[in-house]
């Protein structure tokens, strides 16, 4: 995969990722995104910076004509109160930029920015309009990692899709200025990247992260009989491993869109609760559960569905297409 001149070296292992921003992709179908979530009291929020947006119907339709990931960058932010969505941002832009600020590295998409500071903090600032026709939203999420980053792993042997838990367990401060929300809690941060369009050969996945009192566990489930991945992060360090397939499949249920989601969310083998649907669409669902100091956030994605012309048409109604800023 070719690299842009504006990009910085690939993320090294260990703690050194904190002052480096990975190179951005520039080949058709490639993507890289940076995901973070936070649970803070009655609030939870998700923020994603995307280069080669997985939510972009224009990128999905244009790849065969040579559409480039930097032409389809996006910022997604969702705020939830007691598992009910309060605000939704999905803004798509035709460019992104990387610059050095005070020795740290900053990714700019529109008026929003993602910064990796030299002190180890991760800061996401969102300055957008709610989609599709909502008012302005300004938010700031700051993560202070409490554990080492995990090693990068290949999701499926032989396919060019990769995942890395950069800050699997972090102190978090969430400020949503336009909603008068200030809250502190637990945060999580990871990054995915790949060299081909999701759904081309990798049909989908589901994953969940569990914050407990002492450690965080992330389970990543993949299709086709591929052994799931697990990251465990706590006082004893951060460990990545492949787990054996479950002897018995866990129960699932169908959303109103016919997407199959877990019927219960688990902390290891311990059921936490029935998931609450934060987001539900024909190809994507976001779920949450909390009980007795355990907090679970997860996602289910079927990327093959997204490439249906009808689903791409529907996706236009949850997106704002913006000019470069």
Summary tags:
13-stranded mixed beta sheet; mainly beta; 24 strands; globular; 7-stranded antiparallel beta sheet; AttH-like fold; about 5% helix; about 325 residues
Give the helices and strands, then pairings.
Elements: E1 31-40, E2 43-51, H1 57-62, E3 73-81, E4 84-93, E5 97-101, E6 104-109, E7 112-116, E8 122-129, E9 136-145, E10 153-154, E11 161-176, E12 181-194, E13 204-211, E14 215-221, E15 229-234, E16 237-242, E17 252-254, E18 260-262, E19 265-267, E20 270-273, E21 276-280, E22 284-291, E23 294-302, H2 303-306, H3 309-315, E24 320-321
Parallel strand pairs: 4-24
Antiparallel strand pairs: 1-2, 1-12, 2-3, 3-4, 5-6, 6-7, 7-8, 8-9, 9-11, 10-11, 11-12, 13-14, 13-23, 14-15, 15-16, 17-18, 19-20, 21-22, 22-23
Q: What's the number of extended β-strand segments?
A: 24
- Integer average pLDDT: 89
Counting structural domains, the number is: 1
Shape: globular
Main beta sheet strand tally, sense and closure: 13 strands, mixed
The CATH homologous superfamily is named: AttH-like domain
CATH fold label = AttH-like fold
Listing every helix as H and every strand as E from the N terminus to the C terminus, the arrangement reads EEHEEEEEEEEEEEEEEEEEEEEEHHE
The helical percent reads under 10%
Radius of gyration computed on alpha carbons: 18 Å
- The count of helical stretches stands at 3
Beta-strand percentage range? over 45%
Query: What is the CATH class?
Result: Mainly Beta
Low-confidence stretches: 1-19
């Amino acid at each position: 995969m070719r690299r842009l001149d504006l990009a910085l070296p690939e993320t090294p292992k260990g703690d050194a990722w904190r002052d480096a921003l990975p190179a951005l992709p520039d080949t058709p179908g490639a993507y890289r995104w940076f995901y973070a979530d936070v649970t803070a009291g009655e609030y939870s929020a998700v923020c994603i910076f995307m280069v080669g947006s997985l939510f972009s119907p224009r990128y999905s339709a244009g790849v065969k004509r040579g559409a480039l990931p930097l032409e389809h960058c996006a910022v997604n932010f969702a705020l939830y109160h007691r598992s009910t969505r309060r605000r939704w941002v999905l803004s798509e832009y035709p460019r992104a930029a990387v610059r050095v600020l005070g020795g740290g590295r900053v990714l700019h998409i529109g008026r929003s920015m993602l910064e990796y500071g030299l002190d180890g903090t991760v800061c996401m600032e969102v300055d957008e309009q709610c989609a599709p026709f909502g008012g302005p939203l300004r938010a700031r999420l700051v993560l202070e990692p409490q554990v080492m980053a995990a090693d990068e792993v290949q999701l499926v042997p032989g396919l060019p899709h990769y995942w890395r838990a950069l800050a699997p367990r972090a102190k978090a401060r969430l400020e949503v200025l336009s909603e008068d929300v200030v809250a502190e809690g637990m945060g999580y941060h990871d990054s995915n990247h790949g060299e081909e369009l999701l759904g081309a050969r990798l049909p989908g996945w589901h994953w969940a992260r569990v914050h407990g009192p002492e450690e965080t566990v992330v389970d990543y489930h993949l299709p086709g009989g591929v052994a799931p991945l697990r990251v465990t992060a706590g006082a004893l360090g951060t460990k990545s491993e492949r787990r054996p397939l479950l002897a018995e499949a866990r129960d699932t249920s169908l959303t109103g869109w016919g997407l199959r989601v877990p019927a219960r969310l688990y902390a290891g083998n311990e059921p936490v609760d029935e998931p609450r649907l934060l987001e539900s669409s024909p190809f994507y669902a976001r779920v949450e559960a909390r009980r007795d100091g355990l907090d679970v956030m997860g996602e289910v994605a079927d990327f093959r569905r997204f490439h249906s012309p009808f689903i791409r048409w529907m996706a236009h109604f949850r997106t704002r297409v913006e000019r470069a800023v």
